[in-house]
UniProtKB/TrEMBL annotation, chain A:
Gene Ontology biological-process entries: proteasome-mediated ubiquitin-dependent protein catabolic process
Membrane-crossing segments per the record: none
Lineage: Eukaryota, Viridiplantae, Streptophyta, Embryophyta, Tracheophyta
GO CC annotation: cytoplasm; nucleus
Protein name: CTLH domain-containing protein
InterPro entries tied to this protein: CRA_dom, CTLH/CRA, CTLH_C, LisH, Ubq-SigPath_Reg
Residue ranges occupied by any CTLH domain in the UniProt entry: 77-134
Gene source species: Glycine max (Soybean)
UniProtKB/TrEMBL annotation, chain B:
Predominant subcellular localization, coarse grouping: cytoplasm
An example molecular function term from Gene Ontology annotations: ubiquitin protein ligase activity
Domain named RING-Gid-type: residues: 329-372
Keywords: Coiled coil, Cytoplasm, Metal-binding, Zinc, Zinc-finger
Any one of the GO BP annotations: proteasome-mediated ubiquitin-dependent protein catabolic process
The keyword Zinc belongs to this UniProt entry's keyword annotation: yes
Species, as recorded: Glycine max
Record bears the keyword Plastid: no
Protein name as it appears in the record: RING-Gid-type domain-containing protein
Annotated ranges, domain CTLH: 150-207
Coiled coil stretches, renumbered: 21-48
Length: 242, 386
């Protein structure tokens, strides 16, 4: 947070200087950026936060040893969370549900939407494996009552069952439900819920920081032309269009 | 028509009649009571030795009658009844024109065409026996067969649908699938949806799933929302009435589907949904009152009605009778025709071509627009198409 504050203050000062649309040369910009001091420990904390939140246990362990940065949670608990995530991502939803309940039985009880999505993913896996009769039986027993209680659940259920109307499911309008991205989406949802139940922030700080950078740049665009970062992956300063 | 006014007047007459009747009954009761009393007196007199003066008794009876005064009692209510009746009669005369022949005028129409119109009406309504009989009587049984056939097919389909049998309708939809798709109709999907629901109601989930794959999935690109809902129904097979989709079981769905099918069927035939004769009669019923009013105004000028070819009074028809747009020139007050089309002037206002030619002296000079201060060059006016 202190790092964020430094960046925000610096940008505010730059903004104050620009009474009208002002051209800032690359040399001027780079000098201003070099005046911003970011402590190495803050950087290390950010990286560790990302690795821990996203569940990269081995990387976090190695990073801890090399940098001396301590994670703010017990790495052992990450292993359990990652086991759940891996189970969902590989389509083992039943196993994932068991693991979640082992961790904390209240997570699914207090989060009906998450539970519905896990059951939905389970239905998707049954359909993917061509077990039509079993899929319909499962949907009728477990998901239909949920759909009766909640209109948005019902609509999601309709979309999922609609997969069965097509012989060639990969080419049908609701085919994206069978994508790996659907598994990842459900896995992320589970991960976030577990983190919340463990009183940890469910999103890593680094993406939030980058979002704020982009937002600040957008605001600054209204008042000045300067070398801006367009590609976050390379973080290259690009000369302003004059 | 203001039927409530007539009903009110009728109720008033009824009320007065009841009042008058009860008054009359009351008077009669009084008279009868007096007579019975006198009879009792006379009867008891005969049973004794005492001699009674009959004349005196009868005089007393007469005096009682005078005291009752039945005529004056009934007079008031009778008068009121008479007034109400008279008013009612006048009201009826006002609202129910006894002589609608004033609005009649003789027009020569080809008998064959008229027969065709009448027969078409019967077949359109599904009255095949009457239609056949009519055509045989007027001596045109051959053209009847041609006209009749498609309507027979249509009513067979509709009759089957009344028994919740969609097979003839689905066969028809299959045969005409391409034409229906061109006209943008979604009735094929609706028919298949209804059939799908029927299969579900019979409790066969596998059969329903197979039906969906065969007949519903081709509509996926354009009607995915509908298909999703129908597939959701699979989870409530056999108990659809207790599901979020119970509305699909409503009997009114069958009525709507039948009406939609009839509309599309007539559309493919190039026929109107309602028979031309019934449309004409319905429009005529709507137009008759203003026409009669106009004729009463014109009563002083004989025979002029017979010769005019355009009404000088506006006649408003409901939206259901407006099939396509027309343009009436504000200058000449005549309806635009192909020979005299509406023209868009450079100022944005519209006049008929002949009016423009007249006002511009056959395109030889600039004229002023009747609506605004613009000067108009006839050469720059463009024809409008509706």
């Amino acid at each position: 947070m202190s790092l964020l504050w430094l960046v925000i203050r610096q940008l505010a000062e730059i903004e104050a200087m620009a009474a009208s649309k002002k051209l800032i040369t690359r040399e001027e910009w780079e000098k201003k950026l070099s005046d911003v001091k970011i402590r190495k420990e803050d950087m290390n904390k950010l990286v560790m936060n990302f690795l821990v939140t996203e569940g990269y246990v081995e990387a976090a362990e190695k990073f801890r040893m090399e940098s001396g940065t301590e994670p703010d949670i017990d790495l052992a608990t990450i292993t359990d969370r990652m086991a759940v995530k891996k189970a969902v991502q590989s389509g083992n939803v039943e196993d994932a549900i068991e693991k979640v309940n082992d961790l904390n039985p209240e997570i699914l009880d207090t989060n009906p939407q998450l539970f519905f999505h896990l059951q939905q993913q389970r239905l998707i896996e049954l359909i993917r494996n061509g077990k039509v009769e079993e899929a319909l039986e499962f949907a009728q027993e477990e998901l239909a009552p949920r759909g009766e209680e909640n209109q948005s659940f019902l609509e999601e259920l309709e979309r999922t069952v609609a997969l069965l109307a097509f012989e060639d499911v990969s080419n049908c309008p609701v085919g994206e439900l069978l994508d790996i991205s659907q598994r990842l989406k459900t896995a992320s949802e589970v991960n976030a819920a577990i983190l919340t139940s463990q009183s940890h922030e469910k999103d890593p700080k680094l993406p939030s920081l980058l979002k704020m950078l982009l937002c600040a740049q957008n605001q600054l665009d209204e008042k000045a032309a300067y070398p801006r970062v367009n590609d976050l992956s390379t973080a290259t300063l690009e000369d302003p269009a004059v | 028509m203001e039927l409530s006014t007539i009903k009110d007047a009728f109720d008033r007459v009824t009320k007065k009649q009841k009042l008058s009747c009860s008054k009359t009954q009351e008077a009669i009761d009084q008279i009868r009571q007096e007579i019975e009393s006198v009879l009792d007196t006379l009867q008891s007199a005969n049973n004794t030795d005492h001699e009674l003066d009959y004349k005196t008794v009868l005089n007393e009876l007469k005096a009682s009658f005078l005291l009752i005064a039945p005529l004056s009692q009934m007079e008031g209510t009778q008068k009121e009844l008479n007034v109400a009746l008279t008013k009612y009669g006048k009201l009826l005369e006002k609202h129910f024109n006894p002589d609608i022949s004033k609005a009649y005028r003789n027009i020569d129409i080809d008998r064959h065409t008229l027969n065709q119109i009448i027969a078409n009406h019967f077949y359109h309504q599904g009255l095949f026996e009457i239609g056949d009989h009519f055509m045989s009587v007027v001596g045109e049984p051959e053209s009847a067969a041609i006209m009749k056939f498609p309507f027979v097919e249509m009513y067979q389909i509709l009759e089957a649908m009344q028994n919740q049998n969609l097979e003839p309708a689905l066969n028809w939809a299959s045969t005409n699938g391409d034409k229906l798709a061109q006209s943008g109709s979604d009735i094929v999907l609706k028919l298949h949806s209804m059939q799908f629901v029927k299969v579900l109601q019979n409790g066969s989930r596998e059969e329903a799933l197979h039906y969906a794959r065969m007949h519903l999935s081709p509509f996926a690109t354009s009607h995915m929302t509908d298909i999703q809902k129908l597939m959701g129904c699979l989870l409530w097979t056999g108990k659809l009435d207790r599901s979020p989709y119970h509305a699909l079981l409503s009997p009114s769905n069958w009525d709507k589907l039948a009406e939609e099918l009839k509309r599309q069927f007539c559309n493919l035939l190039g026929q109107s949904y309602n028979s031309p004769l019934s449309v004409t009669v319905a429009a005529g019923v709507q137009v008759l009152p203003p026409l009669l009013k106009f004729m009463n105004v014109m009563a002083g000028k004989k025979n002029e009605w017979q010769s005019m070819n355009q009404l000088p009074v506006p006649v408003e028809l409901d939206r259901e009778f407006q099939f396509h747009s027309i343009f009436v020139c504000p200058v000449s007050k005549e309806q635009a025709t192909e020979d005299n089309p509406p023209m868009l002037m450079s100022c944005g206002h519209v006049l008929c071509k002949q009016s423009i030619l007249k006002m511009s002296k056959n395109s030889t000079k600039v004229f002023k627009c009747p609506y605004c201060p613009f000067d108009i060059d006839a050469a720059q006016c463009k024809q409008l198409y509706f």
